[in-house]
Amino acid sequence: MRKLLLVLVFLSIAADAAVAATIHVPGNQPTIQAGIAAAAAGDTVLVAAGTYYEYSIAMTSGVYLASETGLSDCVTIDAQQQDRVFYCDGVSSLTSIVGFTITGGRAFNGGGMYCSSSSPALTNCTFTGNEAEGGDGGGMCCYGPSSPALTDCTFTANTTSSRGGGMYCDVSSSPTLTGCTFTGNQAYLNDGGGGVYCMYSSPTLTGCTLTGNLAYHGGGMYCDGTASPTLTDCTLTGNLADYGGGMHCHGTASPTLTGCTLTGNLADHVGGGMYCYGSCSPVLMGCTFTGNQANGYGAGVYSHGSSSATLTNCIIAFGQHGEAIYCADGGSAELACCDVYGNEGGDWVGCIALQYGVDGNLNQDPLFCDIYNDDTTLCANSPCLPGGNGCGVLIGAHGPGCAECDAPALRSSWGSTKAMFR
Fold first, then answer.
1. Is the domain of 81 the same as that of 208?
2. Of the candidates 61, 59, 62, 143, the residue with the CA atom closest to the CA atom of residue 102
């Protein structure tokens, strides 16, 4: 009986080994698509270093596709504008794509990758130079209940004439992004979301950076419909739009931002850091707004209609041209334990004037360690540290980062001095 059991165990191990094959490209199969087509769920397709000129690569559910080093500079897939690079339809969360540069894709939706009811895991991938021609998602388009998980991925210089230069999420899609970067992406006509566009979706971003993205609405991110994205420890910096330089919220969108930094974003009209239009209800906790600019109103936040922004333990400082917060046509904002200081258009003015001195709100220089180089950690004697304010909490996104400071930043010097470091 014991020998029989050992034989059965050996046969089981052998069967498992036979199932989990490794297919080498180009060693065993000449192309990436051929390698995937030859693979079954549980198999690995391992791609040797180089550039592969392929497009419309259809993923198989459960396949592990990786470059030989697992880093994005190892393998480049260039679609040469023939079609999108990757297509995922009904792909499960057991599917992985690791270590690729995805470029040259061009399609109506999802120039780099289109996901329909798919949830692949992507790690160390770079989407660059892809285009959604007339549709959505220059880098990636998520449609249907698609929930891809992206870790340490970069979206750069992707474009669309519609929505989501870097990524577009629609119809109950809930992608999870960790440590990802969106930089230099564009939605270049009248829609929005230079970096990310969320429509009726709930993406989760942790430790992500959205920088230097461009759109008509929402340079960094656009939230529409019932979108409820969650951003934690993220940075939105240097994004540009007509409305909502950092983020634009529309409809009944309800984003939640915790520990995020919005700095140096520009709205040519209103809402340098964030623009809320309709019936939005953004919630911001422990966030820092610095150096955002609105050439119209609301350097930090613009709240319109029946929108109501809730800010707790936040800093809004050194905004250029516009007020810290501006409310129009019934919009509102509720602040608690917030420091609003040094904004050119006014600090505790307009719709938040009566909240100064209430619920721990204050008007003091937050004493950033090196604001002129976008270091918004706090000097040891900052009033925003727990021991420096009546709330006894950390105000803003960052804790102490240097010794005590004795030279507070001057409002009048902020714009010209900061420009020297651009």
1. yes
2. 59
Residue 7 is assigned to a structural domain of this protein: no
Question: Band of the pLDDT at 372, cuts 50, 70, 90?
Answer: confident
Q: How far is CA 377 from CA 116, 230, 396, 403, in A?
A: 41, 23, 9, 11
> Is 382 in contact with 389 (CB distance < 8 Å)?
no
CA pair distance 347, 326, nearest whole angstrom: 10
State both tokens at 128: 């660059």
The token pair that represents 408 in the structure block: 């507070």
Average pLDDT of the segment spanning 342-361: 97
Structural domain range at position 273: 252-422
Tokens of 4: 């029989």
Do residues 225 and 282 share a domain?
A: no
> CA-CA distance, 391 to 23, in Å (whole number)?
60
Proportion of the chain in helix, strand, coil states, percent, rounded to 5: 10, 40, 50
φ/ψ (deg, to 5) at 371: -65, -30
Q: Check: CB of residue 217 under 8 Å from CB of residue 243.
A: yes
Whole-angstrom CA distances from 316 to 86, 132, 165 are 41, 36, 28
Q: Per the domain annotation, does 242 fall within a domain?
A: no
Give pLDDT tens digits for 12-48.
Answer: 433 444 568 999 999 999 999 999 999 999 999 999 9
pLDDT at 172: 83
Phi, psi of 88 (to 5 degrees): -120, 120
Pair 294, 321: CB distance under 8 Å: yes
Q: What's the total number of domains in the chain?
A: 2
| Strand pairing category for 57-58 and 293-294 | unpaired
Instruction: Answer yes or no: are the C-beta atoms of 340 and 316 closer than 8 Å.
Output: yes
On average, the pLDDT of the chain sits at 92
Q: Centre a 10 Å sphere on the Cβ of residue 364 and count the other Cβ atoms it contains.
A: 17
Give domain status of residue 114, yes or no: yes
Rounded Cα–Cα distance for residues 46 and 158 (Å): 26
Question: How many other C-beta atoms lie within 10 A of the C-beta of residue 49?
Answer: 12
As a whole number of angstroms, the distance between CA 317 and CA 319 comes to 6
Per-residue pLDDT tens for 106-130? 999 999 999 999 999 999 999 999 9
Domain-embedded: residue 116: yes
Pairing of strands 57-58, 44-47: unpaired
Q: Are the CB atoms for 195 and 213 separated by under 8 Å?
A: yes
Kindly state the helix (H) or strand (E) to which residue 414 belongs, with its residue range: helix 411-419
Residue 171 pLDDT level (bands cut at 50, 70, 90): confident
